[in-house]
Amino acid sequence: MKTVLTNKNISIRTRRRALECYLEPILMYGCEAWTISKQTQKKLEATEMWFLRRMLRISWTAKKTNDTVLEEAHTTRLLISKIRKRQATFFGHVMRREKLENLVTTGMLEGKRSRGKQREKLIEGLTDWLKAGKSLEAIEATKDRKKWRTMIANAVKQGT
Questions:
Q1: How far apart are CA 77 and CA 70, in angstroms?
Q2: pLDDT digits (tens, 9 = 90+) for 125-151
Q3: What is the mean pLDDT of the chain?
Q4: What keywords tag this UniProt record (predicted)?
């Protein structure tokens, strides 16, 4: 793929589409179940920028900001919003089923809490991204598909 993605005879738009078709699915495999911390988000954004810099043949030692690289590629940062959208659609699907996956995803299992700082749950990251307020509001919104889809669409429009 390196020869295709770095070929200057192919338009940037075509190379970007090839990147989205071949590399992003590999990168985002299983992202529906990820909990994205700030550190993970920075790494994913850095990976996205690394792909674009390689595609445009911009050295990492070149003093070009990420904004100028994005302008040259005629794109914006899309990876995190794509991941969040996938997570939200998967979460809605799981919550409507009301099976064991529902309990695991919400983290409402019986038993004692573990010691130390509690792990971030998928629902917490999604409610922050959707700006839904409390996690219970997001869970209730999943019951109505139209409402859930509009919440996702609004969050995608606003970005991350």
A1: 8
A2: 888 888 877 777 888 888 888 988 888
A3: 85
A4: Endonuclease, Hydrolase, Nuclease
pTM of the predicted model as reported, rounded to 2 decimal places: 0.81
Residues counted in the chain: 160
Cα torsion 24, 77, 83, 61: sign: positive
Both tokens assigned to 80: 């995190």
C-alpha count within 13 angstroms, C-beta hemisphere, residue 103 = 5
Q: How would you classify residue 75: left for phi > 0, otherwise alpha for psi between -120 and 50, otherwise beta?
A: beta
Burial of 160 (0-12, 13-18, 19+ CB in 10 A): middle
Q: Which tokens go with 57?
A: 């043949």
Farthest CA pair distance, the chain: 60
Residue 40 burial class via C-beta count within 10 angstroms: exposed 0-12, middle 13-18, buried 19 and up = middle
